């Protein structure tokens, strides 16, 4: 989707109605950015199993319990 919008916004030397829109063009760019960001967030929410977020649970437990790790223990 990002490449589609990049192609639409690309200025190829000739003016299009999209580029002559002024404030409407700016609003279009803002809407595209918001839509793209929302799609990224939806992907992250819907694909948590594939992202293996549960692998970071040990790190979350360490932060939660304020576990102090000695430098000699790092990587072991």
Descriptive notes:
With 76 residues, the chain is mainly α. The protein has a domain at 41-66. It has 4 helices and no strands. The chain has helices at residues 2-9, 23-46, 48-51, 57-64.
Mean pLDDT: 80
Q: Please state the CA-atom Rg, rounded to the nearest Å.
A: 22 Å
| Major β-sheet annotation | none
Decide which structural class fits the backbone: mainly alpha
CA-CA gap between termini: 43 Å
How large a portion of the residues is in β-strands, by DSSP E?
under 5%
* Number of helices in the DSSP assignment: 4
Stretches with pLDDT under 50, minimum 5 residues: none
Principal-axes geometry comes out as elongated
Reading the helices and strands in chain order gives HHHH
Helix content: 55-70%
Based on DSSP secondary structure assignment, what is the total number of beta strands? 0
